[in-house]
Design a protein that fits this description.
Blueprint (H helix, E strand, L loop, with lengths): L4 H7 L4 E2 L15 E4 L5 E4 L10 E3 L2 E3 L14 H18 L1 E5 H20 L2 H10 L3 H14 L8 E5 L10 E6 L1
């Protein structure tokens, strides 16, 4: 029983960005096929030949690179992230000003401005849309009463983000987000 290192190096997975190209020994010309695998990598070529795959492997998990993705993930799964944004939106509409991290403040700006725009437009359908997102129905009723008069001269920019001191402990960027 001899330990052969060369046999193990070809079977070991690569770590990091998968952009390498492996070339198999020459074989007779075959039909070109598009082969997909479960990890998101796609190879184009003859059978047995793996081409470049695009993704990042970190700790055994595959992550696709998110170029052009404008949604802040906030280090949470989708359901927790949506619930967090709904809670923050409800609190901002209730209190008018809250202190949170800069990333959360930037992420919640869009849904808050959308709720205020729904309140300005009025109507039953818009009110049902706002009630489906905001947790407090009395708050939605107050929003639909006060928003048209308060924001009549504005076409957008209903929130203001002000930077504050960094949080003690983890040094996270903090901000105050408030209704204008």
């Amino acid at each position: 029983m001899a330990f052969v290192m060369s046999a193990l190096t070809t079977a070991m997975p690569t770590v990091g960005v998968r952009g390498n190209v492996r070339v198999a020994p020459k074989a007779p010309a075959q039909a070109v096929s598009l082969v997909g695998s479960m990890n998101g990598s796609v190879s184009l070529g003859r059978e047995g030949v793996e081409s470049a795959s695009f993704g990042v492997e970190a700790g055994g998990k595959w992550f696709m690179i998110s170029h052009g993705n404008k949604v802040a993930r906030l280090h949470r799964p989708a359901d927790q992230r949506k619930a967090l944004l709904r809670n923050l939106t409800t609190d901002l509409l209730r209190y008018g000003r809250i202190t949170t991290t800069m990333a959360r403040a930037k992420a919640m700006r869009k849904p808050v401005e959308h709720m205020i725009q729904l309140g300005k437009d009025g109507g039953d359908h818009k009110k049902r849309q706002a009630e489906a997102y905001v947790y407090d129905k009395e708050l939605v009723a107050a929003l639909f009463e006060q928003a048209p008069a308060r924001y009549a001269d504005r076409t957008g920019g209903y929130t203001r983000i002000v930077r504050t001191l960094r949080r003690r402990g983890d040094n996270a960027e903090m901000a105050i987000i408030e209704l204008v």
